[in-house]
Protein: Transmembrane 7 superfamily member 3 isoform X1
Organism: Vicugna pacos
Amino acid sequence: MGLLRLLVLAVLASEPRAAGGAETVGNSSEGLLEFSVGKFRYFTLKRPSPEEAILRHISSNVTFLIFQIHSQYQNTTISFSETLLPNASGTGTDKGLVFILRPEQSMCTWHLATLDAKPVQNVAIPLSYSERDPIPGGCNLEFDLDIDPNIYLEYNFFETTIKFAPANLGYARGADPPPCDIQTGQGSRWRLQYDVYQYFLPENDLTEEALLTHLQRMAEVPQVKASAVKVVTLTANDKTSVSFSSLRGQGVIYNVIVRDPFLNTSAAYVPAHTYTCSFVTTEGNCSSLGRVSSKVFFTLFALLGLFICFFGHRFWKTELFFMGFIFVGFFFYILITRLTLLTYDVLLALTAVAGSVGGVFLAAVWWRFGVLAPCLLCVGLVLGFLVSSVTFFTPLGNLKLFRDDAIFWVTFSCIAVVIPLVFTGCLRILNILSCGLVGSYSVVLAIHSYLYTSLSYITLNVLKRALHVDFRGAFLNVPFQTNDFIILAVWGMLAVSGITFQIRRERGRPFFPPHPYKLWKRERERRVTNILDPSHHIPPLRERLRGRLAQIKELFRKEQPAGERTPLLL
């Protein structure tokens, strides 16, 4: 058996190797995959057929290797031996192992398998490092592997958290590893720094091909620095855990580069990816991101918002209903979400009812009392909320200062309150601006229920902050790609068109309509006293309803036959 294995290796050595960044050839032999350092390779794993990966001709100046394998959503197992041991194997969609080379060793192997019933498409690569490079996960005390270069990823609706094990200093072949926690000076692993990178996949692209292609840009240090965005730099004293805002349906790849500033060397962990949704389960599936209830709710909301964008100031009571709906609905949703465990559809239905009540109440306040101050205060606060949300949607929202809830909410509230105060002397302009900006933004929210757009997170991030305490520590980075530029242009075009149209339309007209209740009362008194007014002779409502009912009854009454029906007298 050993002779047969050597014969197979001799045959492999005689075969030409493919050049380029990725090898896409099939198996070199049945159950055996040959790899080259720094070369990606595509292959398919099946459940009854495990594969063995082999790397030959390893240079003598290489002290350790990181072999990593990736798939889209199906789990793959990588191990040092055929027998799976907790400290020598890993299972997941993005997994890797560190192989510490022995003196004179020039070949190493790994075992690859999957327990999934369907074939799994994978891409894998072995990367080599020297004794001067730090070892990712070399001081692991939290996870199962002895040396763990993997990034562990957890997500929920609010945030996505990555965790990784601390690195250790590199060392020569055959030497003992440096101690992890005995010293804390510049001669120990405490001098290492960790750069956390984030890379966004193309929006609305959930294909396996796109993921495996873009993962190749996040495996090696130079490509990571050139392609991804550095979010934060951690020191050895910081906790090796970073949180990000969850972007449901948007593919994101994370990686960490550990740097040794003393030797000016670096190494990359194994990148991890997520869509913050599932490809397997029915609930929260990536292929059906928008719920039917969300689509119905935000579509109707957008239709009303589009009407308000162009005609809100002219139809004043309709605008008050719209603004009151937003004002009450937002706070009601936060309240019942934090106090109850109701499902999303029930929460949305109750929010719609509460918002409608709030809208009717605000319109009724204006109709009965005719006071502009509370109505325009509500309108101005809604506009201020949108302006404040846009402010924290910028990189300003990632400042460490605003991770404190008190500072964040005080600053947020001050910006929201300043907006109506600034426009105190020009209330009509305030109202028209609110109609144009808020009404047009409702269209953006409706688009998000059908198609992912980062602009929806302008307000969703604030909602998450109000609902989830731990969201305060999350980075709020979002992609800004072609779709977002198009939707931003649509939002701006609608807002500018609506504001311009209403300003031109209202030129020369009264700033606001007169008091509705006084008009109604004056009209009623006029009809009572003026007998020449035709409306004076209109019967009361009760008599008119009785008359209508009598006419309806006549339609169903059986028609009497004509002619004499009594017998003739003799």
